[in-house]
Amino acid sequence: MFLLLFLLPSVTALCPDTATCISRVKEIVAAPRRFWFGEQRRAQCQHRQANPIDCFGPSHLAVYHSLGSRLFRAKTYHTAYLRNLEIFPRITYRALPGHYRACDHEFHVGNVSANVVEADPDMSSVEPFLIRKKPEIGWHGLRFDEEFTILMTDVGFGTLNYLVTNFPIKPKVLKEYETSENFRPVDNPLVLLVFRKGKKDVEVPDAENFDLTTFMLKNDLADNLVGLSLVVVGSDAFAIERQRLRGTVDNCHSLIRKKVALSASTPLISHLPLDELRAWLTISFEQPRVNARICCQKIRQSPSFRHINANSCWWDNLCKLPSAGENLCCSNSALHWLVVDIPASELSYGARGITKFVIHYGVYVVCQHLQCLQCISSTEMHNISSQFRA
Q: Which InterPro entries does this entry report, sorted A to Z (predicted)?
């Protein structure tokens, strides 16, 4: 007797059937406060203390608050826009592991708990890096004697992210797939629309400022919209870096805020005004060759270089707080480094760096032998202390 064990991929799916899914989609499309661009944005962003990054978005779309009004660019959304919906497209992603560099740090994404992500109106948000590859698209009752046009659009930022015609017989890709580049930890909708094939050849629209209504009218598809689904996209360092490289917005400091909030609480951290954090620094430590006799023993150390930033420092030995023990020469607290009034022009790489210090960086040496009672100050240790620039 043979025992056969089938290991099925883990799938996140919530919506049970086509009719229920279409009904739920229509509710979410009409909701005025479901996503970050909803009506609540007025109170958050129309005052002097508003955070410019939290409130950043396409200015020409600011008057549209529901997903439907923003999608069709209609100040007053009506359910008639979706009157012909009859299918619910299934969007399936293979969430692949990988690594990437963002905000001057290496990020490694291992095996994820759900290696298959299926889009759903009430799904939990998914990280952009996990849906970076083109999804599989299909639906119940899909026939191969019909042709459709499929597109995906990032409704929050008004971009065209995917466009294919003649689906599923001989798919012709007019716009390669791109994931949403959501740089904030708030839900952002990536919407998929299915049109029955029109009488005209589809023209490729402007991808950076995609106007769905104009696209439908120009390609004679106004009455051909038969399917709609959405992917709820969160944020990660991958999307943050993509936006930073575009020169749109730099939100790397939000990663620092998140790490600090999740780190072990200390009196210093608990008093930091994290909500006011607006910038971030990368720190490089350079250790010259050391050959000296200190604290009753010989110290030999090869040159080394350490590249530290706040995204990784909570796991880095250089960032661990020292514990005061019997073999620590100096028992009093010490300020290791202090810089004030840093000019923005000096926050750069290379030899320029920061050159004006109030207190130079230095280290206090931990004695290895109890008979050694000499306290080595940071000034006396200048030749072997770690120097860095920001």
A: PEBP-like_sf (IPR036610)
Q: Is the dihedral of CA 75, 79, 84, 87 positive or negative?
A: positive
Whether 111 maps to a domain, the answer reads: yes
Contact between 234 and 190 under an 8 Å Cβ cutoff? The reply is no
- Sign for the pseudo-dihedral over CA of 36, 57, 120, 240: negative
Q: Tens digits of per-residue pLDDT, 324-381?
A: 444 445 455 566 666 666 665 665 544 455 555 555 555 544 444 444 434 444 333 4
Decide if 89 contacts 226 (C-beta within 8 A).
no
375 C-beta neighbours (distance < 10 Å), count: 15
In a domain, 351, yes or no: no
* Residue-range definition of the domain harbouring residue 132: 82-246
First vs last C-alpha separation in the chain: 67
316 located within any domain: no
Task: Provide the token pair at 322.
Answer: 């020292």
pTM for this structure?
Answer: 0.74
Q: Is 18 exposed, middle or buried (0-12, 13-18, 19+ CB in 10 A)?
A: middle
The whole-angstrom separation of Cα 313 and Cα 283 is: 10
Could you report the average pLDDT of every consecutive run of 10 residues in the chain (390 residues)?
Answer: 38 71 96 95 86 91 96 94 96 93 90 82 94 96 93 98 96 97 96 95 95 96 97 97 93 86 69 75 73 78 60 43 47 61 57 53 47 40 38
51 within some domain: no
CA distance 168 to 190: 21
CATH number of the domain that residue 138 is part of = 3.90.280.10
Contact 75, 64 (CB under 8 A): yes
Q: Can you tell me whether residue 217 is helix, strand or coil?
A: helix
Q: 263, 321 in Cβ contact below 8 A?
A: no
Residue type, 286: E
Q: Is the C-alpha dihedral spanning 140, 144, 149, 154 positive or negative?
A: positive
Total domains, the chain: 1
Interacting residues of 47 by C-beta distance below 8 A, sequence separation 6+: none
